[in-house]
Amino acid sequence: MKIGIIGCGTISGAYFEGAKRTEILEIKGCADINQEASRSKAEKYNCKSYTVEELLLDSEIELVVNLTIPRVHVDVGLQVLNAGKHVYSEKPLGVDIDSGKQLIDTAAEKGLRVGSAPDTFLGGGIQTSRLTIDSTKIGKPLSGTAFMCGHGPESWHPNPAFYYDIGGGPMLDMGPYYITALVNLLGPVKRVAAITTKAFEERIATSQAVNGLRIPVNTTTHLTGILEFENGVIITMIMSFDMWRHSLPCIEIYGETGTLRVPDPNTFGGPVAICPAGGDWEDVPICYPNNARMIGVVDMVSAIESDRIHRANGDLAYHVLEVMLAFDKSSESGEHVLIESTTERPAPISTGLNEWQID
After folding, report:
1. Could you give the CA distance from residue 114 to residue 320 in angstroms, rounded to a whole number?
2. Domain contains 307
3. Are residues 186 and 330 in the same domain?
4. 279 and 169: one domain?
5. What domain range includes position 91?
């Protein structure tokens, strides 16, 4: 399948590199509002540089990967759908629930598909964790923790301002990795209770490209809450850009007969470990290839061709978006927030496959 990319910023390199490792798709061209960025990527990866309008008019391109900034994900996604093409978006799906629903509904009306990052849950680490839970090696899951804590991207990112604007913050930036992984492991979320805040009204960038840039903070930067899943599991979560250092685990699941340590869901690999009741930590062999960014698009293309549900699908991304937005909503109201959407756990990947194979 011939695909196009809209948005040629920092993350696009990972998608271009991933595409070189599979024969199921071909990047025909790319576009960006910064034409120089588009031309640079096109030259490096031997594809065509378009304007956005030109790319959407190319009838050979059947699917577009949308790598624009979060607050225009839905706007660009709707343009793609209205051009008659499937769309796969970088995370998050959108920055508000109404526009996210509009994207999903538009795709359904047109008989097209929506996919969305993250696809890291298709890597060896989370898939091995899923197999460990499904094979009851820790018994029935009861509770767990999920922590992503640091001091923000302004020390390294060449353009960090959007992380602190509407649609940014640690939840919409990193929450998709964690909540998507948890839904893959445990199923859909039922309700959320949370308190959120921000420690600083302004950030000062120290990254080389924009050192000294003063960045206004327009979003919450420390979110702590509890997720109750439909199966009764309770997860305690902290997402923060307000911590200089910590020693918290990424994700742990506590079961009836043991504990599962899940690797960083922002990566595709391990390590995975379990601690059986009364025992010590034991490494779990990773029994899947790690793969890399673009595997979600590979799965989506494969699913379109075989008429099955793709794993990093729009319903999953919409459910994750609603859960993430529920943190601020709960904090503002002082009440639990019931999650109206639901989703199926994505189908697990079979063991024994080679890198970039999908079933």
Report:
1. 14
2. no
3. yes
4. yes
5. 2-116
Domain count, the chain: 2
pLDDT in tens, 169-192: 999 999 999 999 999 999 999 999
| Residue 352 φ/ψ, nearest 5 degrees | 90, 5
**Whether residues 211 and 265 fall in one domain:** yes
Task: Give domain status of residue 304, yes or no.
Answer: no
Closest alpha carbon to 272 in 122, 128, 123: 128
Give the DSSP H or E segment for 224: strand 222-229
Could you tell me which residues are beta bridge partners of residue 338? 191
> What's the CATH number where 198 sits?
3.30.360.10
Structural domain includes residue 345: no
φ/ψ (deg, to 5) at 340: -80, -35
The candidate with the shortest Cα–Cα distance to 114, out of 133, 99, 132, 129, is 99
Q: Do 279 and 155 fall within a single domain?
A: yes
Helices (H) and strands (E) in the chain, counts: 9, 17
- Rounded Cα distance, 343 and 330, in Å: 21
Q: Which of 204, 199, 117 is nearest to 160 (CA)?
A: 204
**Model confidence band, residue 35 (pLDDT cutoffs 50, 70, 90):** very high
Widest pairwise Cα distance in the chain = 62
Residue 135 burial by Cβ neighbours in a 10 Å radius (0-12, 13-18, 19+): exposed
pLDDT tens, residue by residue, 82-101: 999 999 999 999 999 999 99
- CATH number for the domain spanning 30: value is 3.40.50.720
Dihedral-angle region of residue 95 (phi above 0 means left; psi in -120 to 50 means alpha; beta otherwise): alpha
Q: For residue 220, what are the CA distances in angstroms to 170, 194, 336?
A: 8, 12, 18
Question: Could you tell me the two tokens for 238?
Answer: 């902290």
> pTM value?
0.95
Distance CA 117, CA 133 (A): 23
**237 and 104 within one domain:** no
Cα separation of 347 and 107, whole Å? 21
